[in-house]
């Protein structure tokens, strides 16, 4: 993923070319109006920033990407694996008030165009899903719990139930904390599903200390769910390393803003 004409978000140039009717963006920390820890483009309503500045920031991103904020839908994320189908009737949920967000969901998907599905991030992995023939779009939030719980596979499973072939699905794995900066303990490693080739996923640093590659873990799980490897793009970007671009929960010791991942087919 890389910067386009605006500094407020990144996009995949490959996806832009391949899917001209699709918006799939990941916001940066730049170009907004928040102050202090949230400087400047915090898009998270639940992190003690001023509500009206967060809404202002979201409106800036919406405008830069050719949308109206009231067409987007946010979720109340809980580090689970619950995935919810939304429709145009849900447009605007959680965009200006956190308590109006879709309850307890870490994945959103739809067949409706004209709505943008939005989730918040500060190190966890944003996973975007698109299938142009059916007009399917989806986004998932995968921290270590969602990753080992295979929320990506759950997205593919629900899409398949609704008639979307996994082998036609395209997946984009966005910026998250990278293997370079993500130390975990044995408790996390023990929960990695058995089907995963663990050698590619983590490195042992010392007694009970590991470096985990969440983007690669999710990629393997999504291939396991039936998506073609050549249909998966991995950003490889690390939110903790790229201080000038991203908020990072771990690097900023919890006092930080949130980026948004937004996906949606524009109304034609
Ligand atoms: Zn890093």
TrEMBL record:
The keyword Ligase does not apply. It catalyses: S-methyl-5'-thioadenosine + phosphate = 5-(methylsulfanyl)-alpha-D-ribose 1-phosphate + adenine; adenosine + phosphate = alpha-D-ribose 1-phosphate + adenine; adenosine + H2O + H(+) = inosine + NH4(+); inosine + phosphate = alpha-D-ribose 1-phosphate + hypoxanthine. Transmembrane segments: none annotated. GO terms for molecular function: copper ion binding; hydrolase activity; S-methyl-5-thioadenosine phosphorylase activity. It holds the Pfam family Cu-oxidase_4. CDD domains: YfiH (cd16833). Its cofactor is Zn(2+). Keywords: Hydrolase, Metal-binding, Transferase, Zinc. The keyword Transcription does not apply. InterPro entries: Cu_polyphenol_OxRdtase, Cu_polyphenol_OxRdtase_sf, Cytotoxic_necrot_fac-like_cat. Belongs to the purine nucleoside phosphorylase YfiH/LACC1 family. Purine nucleoside enzyme that catalyzes the phosphorolysis of adenosine and inosine nucleosides, yielding D-ribose 1-phosphate and the respective free bases, adenine and hypoxanthine. Also catalyzes the phosphorolysis of S-methyl-5'-thioadenosine into adenine and S-methyl-5-thio-alpha-D-ribose 1-phosphate. Also has adenosine deaminase activity. This is Purine nucleoside phosphorylase. It comes from Jeotgalibacillus malaysiensis.
């Amino acid at each position: 993923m890389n910067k386009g004409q605006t500094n407020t978000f990144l996009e995949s140039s490959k996806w832009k070319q391949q899917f001209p009717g699709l918006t799939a963006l990941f916001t940066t920390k730049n170009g907004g109006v928040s102050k202090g820890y949230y400087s400047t483009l915090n898009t998270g309503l639940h992190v003690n920033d001023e509500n009206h500045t967060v809404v202002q920031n979201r409106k800036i991103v919406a405008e830069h990407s050719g949308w109206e904020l009231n067409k987007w839908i946010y979720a109340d994320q809980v580090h689970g694996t619950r995935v919810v189908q939304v429709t145009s009737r849900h447009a605007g949920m959680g965009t200006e008030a956190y308590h109006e967000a879709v309850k307890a969901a870490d994945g959103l998907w739809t067949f409706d165009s004209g709505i943008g599905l939005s989730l918040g991030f500060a190190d966890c992995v944003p996973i975007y899903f698109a299938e142009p023939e059916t007009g399917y779009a989806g986004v998932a939030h995968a921290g270590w719990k969602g990753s080992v719980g295979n929320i990506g596979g759950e997205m593919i499973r629900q899409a398949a139930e609704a008639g979307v072939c996994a082998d036609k699905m395209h997946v984009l794995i966005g910026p998250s904390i990278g293997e370079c900066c993500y130390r975990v303990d044995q408790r996390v490693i023990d929960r990695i599903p058995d089907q995963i080739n663990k050698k590619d996923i983590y490195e042992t640093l010392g007694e009970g200390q590991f470096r985990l590659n969440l983007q690669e873990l999710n990629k393997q799980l999504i291939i396991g769910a039936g998506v073609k490897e050549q249909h998966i793009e991995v950003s490889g970007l690390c939110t903790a390393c790229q201080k000038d671009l991203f908020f990072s929960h771990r690097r900023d010791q919890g006092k930080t803003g949130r980026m948004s991942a937004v996906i949606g087919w524009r109304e034609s």
